[in-house]
TrEMBL record:
Annotated segments matching region Disordered: 1-24
Biased amino acid composition, Low complexity: 11-24
Superkingdom: Bacteria
Species name: Kineococcus aurantiacus
Protein name from the UniProt record: Uncharacterized protein (DUF1015 family)
UniProt xrefs under InterPro entries: UCP033563
């Protein structure tokens, strides 16, 4: 079971320096990519971010190919725990290492095409230019750090959202880069392309520009916190694989993550609320209307026989929003982490309410979220969902 403390704690031990870092945040690196003549087609080896894969899907992926990227997620998913799986793949010729550069991944999906600038992030013990927006569990941070050290590879990038201008248009990599690999799905539809930016002038311009950017961590808080903890312990900078999404040119989709949980746990949230307001809801449209109008400190509890808008006590720490106090109430009642599901689609949430209940969180926009983090505040753990997210396996990074 996960640590039962609130999900809004910051990583301890990060010293606050007297001067702000000023060097580049993004660095080129020699990425690892699949040698498809050995591994088979790329589309069979990619995977969604590990946080979006349930147990059944993970088992299917692991069984689908000895080289699917999911094998690199944990050391126990490898074929020989005495040897790092990434090293075994390198020796077998399943992975090839590129010359150093930055990358652009062009990812196609049902909602359109998204571009990610992929590089190695400079992770310092303290750097206000890279900010989380959700809390983390300290126990999970230590577990993630151990996992990274044992696997020896960044198998998927941390997603960063950026709202600052760049000196050149990297979203058109055909003008500044070289196509290295492409993936098509089983029906022949384009899935993604991997481009590398190697021109020294291009790489230098982007790296220098990154020094003045302000990145918001959208997905991968525990991985970033783990590498930052390593930087604190070692007293030096570390590196981490990241994918940057430019919200100024391709706006991100930001939605709340709702909770589906045992009915008894939802009843406890209603009991612990400082204010309660019953509401009459009969359709998904009714639910969307009420949920869409929730202020940051309220939540909508859906029980099989009724619905209640609840509000918790005013917060005094760094945590803001209803997600933090809702999760505190759930965990205080002894609900196990594995008994709570996190869904973003209202139709799925409504369908799950029967023998279980749901708690819907309010929506926030990116501008408000950026203001919040600049003030040093955090939302609760797993309260937001950014889309689209980069697939794991397009480019890997040795640690």
């Amino acid at each position: 079971m996960e640590d039962l403390r609130t999900g809004t704690r910051a990583v301890p031990g990060s010293p606050v320096g007297t001067s702000s870092p000023s060097g580049p945040l993004l660095h080129p690196f020699g990425g690892l990519r699949y040698a498809q003549r050995v591994t088979g087609p790329l589309w069979r080896l990619l995977a969604p971010p590990h946080t979006e894969i349930d147990k059944a899907r993970r088992a299917d992926l692991l069984a689908s190919s000895p080289y699917v990227v999911t094998h690199l997620e944990r050391p126990e998913y490898g074929h020989d725990t005495r040897q790092r799986e990434v090293n075994r793949w390198l020796e077998a010729g399943a992975l090839e290492q590129d010359a150093p550069g930055l990358y652009v991944v062009r990812q196609h999906g049902t909602t359109g095409t998204r571009h990610f600038l992929v590089g190695a992030l400079e992770v310092l013990p303290h750097d206000p230019r890279v900010r989380p927006h959700e809390g983390v569990f300290e126990q999970a941070v230590d577990a993630r750090l151990e996992r990274l050290e044992r696997t020896g590879v960044d198998s998927e990038p941390v997603l960063l959202v950026d709202s600052d201008p760049w000196p050149l248009e990297w979203r058109h990599p055909e003008h500044v880069g070289q196509l290295l690999s492409s993936a098509f799905d089983q029906d022949g539809n384009p899935l993604l392309e991997v481009w590398q930016l190697r021109d020294p002038d291009v790489v230098r311009a982007l790296a220098r520009a990154s020094a003045k950017h302000r990145f918001l961590i959208a997905d991968g808080h525990h991985r970033h916190a783990a590498v930052q903890r390593s930087a604190v312990r070692r007293g030096r900078a570390e590196r981490l694989l990241v994918a940057v999404a430019d919200d100024t040119t391709e706006p991100v989709d930001l939605q709340p993550l709702h909770r589906v949980l045992p009915r008894e746990a939802a009843e406890r949230v209603v009991e612990r609320a400082h204010h309660r307001r019953p509401v009459l809801l009969t359709t998904v449209e009714d639910i969307a209307r009420v949920a869409g109008g929730l202020p940051p400190d309220q939540a909508l509890v859906l029980l099989p026989d009724r619905a209640v808008v609840v509000e918790g006590a005013p917060t005094t720490g760094p945590a803001v929003g209803s997600g933090a106090w809702v999760d505190d109430a759930v965990r205080a009642g002894g609900t196990a982490a594995e008994d709570v599901r996190y869904l973003r689609e209202l139709s799925e949430v409504r369908a799950a309410v029967g023998d279980r209940a749901a708690i819907l969180l309010p929506r926030t926009d990116l501008a408000a979220l950026q203001v919040l983090v600049r003030e040093g505040r955090l939302l609760g753990r797993k309260t937001t969902s950014f889309r689209p997210k980069p697939l794991a396996g397009a480019v890997l990074r040795l640690r």
